[in-house]
Amino acid sequence: MNTLELLRADRVLTVVRAPEISDARDLCATLVAGGIHVVELTYTTPDLPRHLERAASTAAETGAVVGAGTVQTGDQATQAINAGAQFLVTPGQGPEAAAIAEAARTAGVPVVLGAFTPSEVMTALALGSAAVKIFPAHQLGPKYFKDLNGPFPGVPLIPSGGVNATNASDFLAAGALAVSAGTDVVSPADVAAANWEAITAKAKAFCAAIAQ
């Protein structure tokens, strides 16, 4: 099952933003135990390639699909892919968006480019984005996804930013492919302290909320 198919089945991925990760393998296993299989480790965490390598090398053991987020340059894209990232995510479309997309295409890795406006969605699709991340999603809410479905029927959209267990199901009902669970599930404090039980409990609660 590829990343997009897994997202369509699970309807959630988690975005990890933490000042440190004690063990990326344990973090991924914790999230899978809570029902979330797609894990996005971000460049806002220092020494990201090392964490990606650890997570990717143990993916068969944990059952996680691990990618790199907050990718902003072509060099970062290549670095993440070489470390084992199975997908790439950008916060938006900076001057190196095309280079990021090309690195992903060359490696056969799906890229999810960030967008906010319809024009940016069009650009992301033209660059070969497998899905489009709408960020920050909370600014316009679930209704915006219904609006986007008009000109972009069938385009896989993923809301990110301000999505939580309370509003996630509304985004899905409005047509989102899946939602990004951030600090609502993986708080930086829990990750840094290796508080795996708390993260598993929050992941289970989030998955239960979107299943209703």
Strand order of the largest sheet: 3-2-1-8
State the major sheet. Answer: 4 strands, parallel
Overall, the morphology is: globular
Stretches with pLDDT under 50, minimum 5 residues: none
**What is the chain-wise order of helices and strands?**
HEHEHHEHEHEHEHEHEHH
Number of helices: 11
Percentage beta strand = 15-25%
Question: In angstroms, what is the radius of gyration?
Answer: 16 Å
Give average pLDDT, whole number.
Answer: 96
How helical, in percent, are the residues? 40-55%
From the N-terminal CA to the C-terminal CA, the straight-line distance is 24 Å
Number of strands: 8
Class derived from helix and strand content:
alpha/beta
Would you kindly provide a written description of the structure presented here, covering whatever features stand out?
Pathway: Carbohydrate acid metabolism. InterPro entries: Aldlse_KDPG_KHG (IPR000887), Aldolase_TIM (IPR013785). This is Bifunctional 4-hydroxy-2-oxoglutarate aldolase/2-dehydro-3-deoxy-phosphogluconate aldolase. Pfam families: Aldolase. Belongs to the KHG/KDPG aldolase family. The chain has 212 residues and is an alpha/beta fold. Helices cover 45% and strands 15% of the residues. The protein contains eleven helices and eight strands. It has helices spanning 3-10, 24-33, 48-57, 59-62, 74-82, 97-107, 118-126, 142-149, 168-173, 188-192, 196-211; strands spanning 12-16, 38-42, 65-69, 88-89, 111-115, 131-134, 157-159, 179-181. The chain has a four-stranded parallel β-sheet. The protein has a four-stranded parallel β-sheet with strand order 4-5-6-7. The radius of gyration is 16 Å and the shape is globular.
